[in-house]
Every structure is written in C-alpha cells, then in structure tokens.
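Re: the request from the purification team.
They wanted to know what the chain is likely to look like in 3D before they choose a buffer screen. I agreed to run a prediction and write the result into the notebook, where they can find it.
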Amino acid sequence: MKSQLVLIIFWIFASDVCDTICQLLLKFCINSLGWHIDSIKKALQLTFELAKIPVAWLGLMFSIFSLFIWLFVLTRSDLNFAFSADSMRYILIAVASTAVLKEKIGFMRWAGIGTVVCGITLVALG
C-alpha cells in the first residue's frame, strides 16, 4: 500500500509540474503582450492575441497533459486525498515564479506556503 501512495504522490506531482509549466508559459506570453484586462471584450481580444503565439499553445499542451495525469490520479485515489496533495502546485508556482519570472514573494506569503507544506505532509501521513 505504501508503494501505491508514493506512486499516487508522484503522479500528482507530475500533474502539478505540468500545470506550473503551463502557467509560466502563459504568464510569459501575457507579459510579452503587455496587456491589462479591464473588460470582457479585452479578455476576448487577449485570447485571440495569445492564440497567435506558439508558446501559448505549448502552455495549453502542458495543461492538457496535466488534465490527463489528473484523471489517471482520480481513478487511483480518493478525491479528498488527491485534492489536498494537489496543493503542491501552490508551492511549485511560488518557487517557479520567483526563479523564472523574478517575482518577489514576501515573508508572509512564504510563511503561508510553509503552512501548505505542513498540511500536505499531514494529509499524506493520515
């Protein structure tokens, strides 16, 4: 049973990595356009502009990979466990946005991320 748990956590982590890559690629594309959205019309225009950027399509592919992996996870574990462990994505996004996008994360946010890590650990052990 322990090896099954490790395998499920691995696949959840893989899904989260794919989603993190997707988010980074989309943020990169949006930053390159320099847009700010203040209406539904502008959101639709941005969507059409993103559709012209190959990197945005790559991000979409990673999102689809994440979905397929997530569906696999759901067939193998309880939803309450999988969804709780899926919170690893918050940690990955914070670390990746700091490392890749050079975003600044304050102490309180890191403290919150640390709390998420503790929660994921408790869920995995319980």
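For the purification team: Residues 74 and 82 are 7 Å apart (CA to CA).
Please add any questions underneath this entry.
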